[in-house]
Design brief:
Structural class: mainly alpha
Helix content: 55-70%
Distance between the termini: 68 Å
Number of helices: 5
């Protein structure tokens, strides 16, 4: 018994002009959907490189003229390994838990 190698269309159907058109439409649709899915992640990453005023400016500015890489370093240092903010209140609360 051979393995079933059937997908959306058979190999013979893929070779026809209609099959090639369908393949082209699939690739265009897949490229469009991938851009829609990837764009928010790209925008969020590059928004972290802007200062707060540039983020809210009208229009889409993906890459800043002067990237502020320290924004990510500052954000990383403000949160500890448990996701809590490093504020005096959070430190005092954690010390209270540790003393119990």
């Amino acid at each position: 018994m051979g393995t079933a190698n059937r997908g959306i269309m058979s190999n013979a159907e893929w070779r026809t002009p209609t099959g090639r058109l369908i393949t082209f439409i699939y690739f265009i649709l897949l490229a469009f959907v991938s851009v829609i899915v990837i764009f928010p992640f790209l925008f969020s990453f590059t928004a972290g490189l802007h200062n707060s005023i540039d983020v809210v400016k009208p229009g889409i500015h993906l890459w800043p003229a002067k990237p502020l890489w320290n924004n990510y370093l500052d954000a990383w240092q403000r949160f500890d390994e448990f996701g809590e903010r490093r504020t005096p209140h959070a430190v005092a609360r954690r010390r209270g838990r540790d003393n119990r």
